[in-house]
Amino acid sequence: MKKFILSIAVIFSVTLFANAQKYAFIDSEYIMENIPSFNAAQEQLNQLSSQYQKELESMHAEIEQMYQDFQAESVLLSEDMKRKREDVIITKEKDYKTLQRKYFGPSGDLFKKRQGLIKPIQDDIFNAVQEIATDGSYAVIFDKAGDATLFYTNPRYDLSDEVLRKLGYK
């Protein structure tokens, strides 16, 4: 019984404390869509990704052709020639995987380029939100974009347009 009363008291005090706080939300996707430099950066990243993908597809097609040629000619090759051809194909596959990691890996070229182009914009948004939170005395500002689980949001508390104005857009 004491645990039940204690639980009720904790819930009651948390509710009172929560009611004294100010909350708001933003939609970071909406904000970024309305920043021209973000759209330009995104387009640049898409082009770079497409270029890398085409290069890798070409390399993969070359490896596939080498493998098909090897299979077709293997009955005519000596064991030594077979091993040499297999080694060439294996080396080419390793080069392919290395290049794939170089372009698309966790610390690859595309990731670094994204960090260089998008991170400064995200930092500006974060700083604007932080200023708005401080000036407006908000305890918490949620982001409803992406994986956030906000079942209901009252548009009255949406600060997305205010963030854009703070950044000098709209």
Automatic annotation (TrEMBL):
Domain of life the protein comes from: Bacteria
Pfam families registered for this protein in UniProt: OmpH
An annotated GO BP: protein stabilization
Keywords: Coiled coil, Signal
UniProt keyword Coiled coil, yes or no: yes
Signal peptide boundaries: 1-20
InterPro entries per the UniProt record, alphabetical: Chaperone_Skp, Skp_dom_sf
GO MF annotation list: unfolded protein binding
A GO term from the CC aspect: cytosol
Family as reported in the entry's similarity comment: Belongs to the Skp family.
UniProt name for this protein: Membrane protein
Natural source organism: Draconibacterium sediminis
Taxonomic lineage: Bacteria, Pseudomonadati, Bacteroidota, Bacteroidia, Marinilabiliales
